[in-house]
Amino acid sequence: MEQRYDLLVEIGTEELPPTALRRLSEAFAEQLSRQFDEHGLTHDEVTPFATPRRLALQVSALASRQPDQENLRRGPAVAAAFTDNGSATQAALGFARSCGVDVSELRREESDKGAWLAYLQRIEGQATDVLLPQLISNALAQLPIPKRMRWGNGSEEFVRPVHWVCVLFGPGRVSGNVLGTEIVATSRGHRFHHPDTVPIARPSDYADALRAAYVEPSLAVRRQRISEQARQLAAKVGGTASIPDALLDEVAALCEWPVALLGRFEPEFLQVPADALVETMQKNQKYFPVLGDDGALMPYFVAVSNIESRDPALVQAGNERVIRPRFADAKFFWEQDRKVRLEDRRESLKPIVFQHRLGSVWDKSLRVAALSRHIARLLDYDPDLAERAAVLGKCDLVTLMVGEFGSLQGIMGRYYAQHSGEPPCVVAAMEEQYLPRHAGDSLPESECGRVLALADKLDTLIGIFAIGEKPTGVKDPYGLRRAAIGVLRMLIEIPLALDLKALLSAAAEGFPGEIPAKASVDEVFDYINDRLRGYYGERAIGMDIVDAVLAVSPTVPSDVDRRVLAVAEFRRLDAAEALAAANKRIRNILKKSAAGEIGDLVDPDLLVEPAEQRLAERIVEMRSKVEPLLFAQDYESALRTLAELRPDVDRFFDQVMVMAEDSSLRANRLAILRELEQLFLATADIARLQ
C-alpha cells in the first residue's frame, strides 16, 4: 500500500519585495505542484504561507515514492535483426547492447506493419525524500523574478539572499541543499520578539509553532487582522479607515506580527487638498487614512507596526513625528503654488522635453490645443473651452506639489485651475485628461475632459509611431497600448460618434514637416483596431466576430461596436451557421469568377429556375427593408431580417446550377450572388464566422 506523508517546505530569506510577495507565494505553490505532477507524485491540498522573510508550503498526503514505470523501447524490425540462419545481425546486437541486455532477453512486438524487436524496461520509482531538494530547486527557478540576486561566494541566485531552508517529510530527515543552503528541520521566529530557531516537530505544527514565536505565517490571516484592527481603531474616533486592496496587500507583506496603532495629526493640515495628504500617507508611509461619514479626511491615520511594543504610545508618537514634516512640506507647496496662476506657468513648459524629436511639452500642448478645438467642433462642444483646457492641461507639471508627488499630476491641476477661476469644464479636464489610467478605470465625464483626453492620446500615438518608436514585445515606454485602449473606450463607451481615421489624420496635421506623421496614420489606425480583439475578448466576444466586422473596414469605433454586438446576436440564430457557410460558398464562387464573367445587374428575363426567381425577388424585397435599418445603424435588426433568407438561399443552391454552360445565365446567377453578398457585407463579412 502506498505511504503518504505531509510535507513542509520553508525558504527563509532576507526581506522579500512586498508588492511581489503574494505573486511569489502563489507561483511557488503552483510550480512545486507541477513538479510533483511531472514526477508522478500524488498529493492532496497545497497550502501556501508567506511573510516578509519566508516563502513556505504545506502539502497534505504526498506520496512517499514515485510509482514504478515501464518503458517499452522498440528496436529494429525482426527481418533486419536476424540473418536467414537465425543469427543476430549487428542491428540486433547494437540495440541489445544499448539496453544493457543480451539479444535473447529482447521481446517481439507485432503490429500491422510487421514484427519488431523490443525491450520492456522497468524503472523503479525513487523515494520522494531523495527527489525533494531538486524538485524544490526546480520550482524556485521558475518563479516570476525579473532580477535575481547573488550573495556570498556562491553562484546561487534568488530574489533575495537565502538564510535557511526547512523541509519536513515522513519519519526521517530530509537531507540535501537548496540554493546552496543545507536543509534543516527548524524555522526562525520574529526578528525581534523571537530571533532564535523554532523547532518544528511535523508539518501540521508549522503555523502554531510560528505563531508562538510571534510570526503569523498566513498572508491572508495577516491581511484580515490588519483590516479588522484598522476598522476598529477608526471607529473609536467616529471614522472609517480607507483600506485600498493594493495597500492592504503591501502592508500585510511588510510585517510578520501586525499591530495597528491610531495616529493623529494637526487639523490645520486639512487645509491642504486631501489628495496630497492621502498620497503622502499611503505611498510614503503605508498608513491608512481615516474618513468621516461625509467622506472627508479626518486628522487621524492608522499605522501598522511589526512589533508588539511594551510602550505603544511611544510607537504612535514616532509615527506622528514622521508624518508631520511631510505634511508641512505639502502645506508649503500648496501655499506657494497658489501664488502663481496656472496660465502664468505656460512659459515654464518650454524647457521640458516631451520627446527629443517631438519637441517640448509646450510644443505638444500647442498641437493638442489645435486638435482639441477641431474635435470640439465635430462634437458640437464649445471649441474655446476645449482649447483653453488643452492650453492649461500640463501646467501643473511645473508646480512644487507635482514636482514632489508626480502621481498627483492632473489632480493638482484641477485644484489650481479652480483656484485660478477657470470655468468648471476646464477645471474638470485637468484631471480627466489622464482617464482612463488603467483597465476598468472611469472615463471623462465633462465635455472638455473628453476632448482633451482624446486629443492628448491621439497626439502621442501619432507622434511616437511617426518617429519609429512603436511598442515591441513587452516594451511600451510611452504607454501606447494603454492610450489606444483609452481612445477605443472613450469612442465606444461614452460613446462619441467620431471617425477614428479622420481623427488620426487631423492629429498628424499638427506635426512639422520633418516628422512623417501623415505616413503613420494607417499604421496607427491598424494598431488601435488590433486592440479591439483584446477589448472584446474580455467581454467574451469571439475574435472571429471582431474580424468579421473589421473586414468591411468601418472607421467609426462606436459604429464598430454596434456591428460587433449585432453579429454576436446574429450568431445565436438558428440560421446563422447555414448563412455563414453560404456566404463562404458565395465568396469562393465569386473569387474564382473573372471580373467580366459577373453580370452588372440581375436581368429578370434571364431568371429561368423558380428558385433563382424567388431569391432575386427576395433580395429586392430585403434591400428595401434593410437599407432603412442600416441607415439607422440598427445592425441587429438588419441581420435578423436577412436571416429570413436562409430557406431561399438553401433552395437556390440545391436547385440551381450557378456555373451554367450558357454564359448569360451564368453571369446573371453570379450577379444574384454578388447582390446577396453585398446585403450582408453592409454590416459584416459573416463568411468569416467560425
Which CATH class of the largest domain?
A: Mainly Alpha
Structurally, the number of domains stands at 5
Structural class category:
alpha+beta
Radius of gyration: 35 Å
Strand content: 5-15%
- The strands making up the biggest β-sheet line up spatially as 2-3-1-9-11-10
DSSP summary: helix tally: 25
Count of strand segments: 19
Can you tell me the residue ranges where pLDDT is under 50 for at least 5 consecutive residues? none
Please estimate the helix content: 40-55%
The best one-word shape is flat
- CA(first)-CA(last) distance: 51 Å
Could you characterize the architecture of this molecule?
- The protein is an alpha+beta fold.
- The protein has five domains: 4-66 and 127-212, Alpha-Beta Plaits; 69-123, no CATH class; 219-337, no CATH class; 344-540, Orthogonal Bundle (Hypothetical protein af1432), CATH 1.10.3210; 574-688, Isoleucyl-tRNA Synthetase, Domain 1, CATH 1.10.730.10.
- Helix content is 48%, strand content 14%.
- The chain is built from 25 helices and 19 strands.
- The strands form six sheets. A six-stranded mixed beta sheet has the order 2-3-1-9-11-10, covered by helices on one side. A four-stranded antiparallel beta sheet has the order 14-16-17-15, with helices on both faces. It has a three-stranded antiparallel beta sheet with strand order 4-6-5.
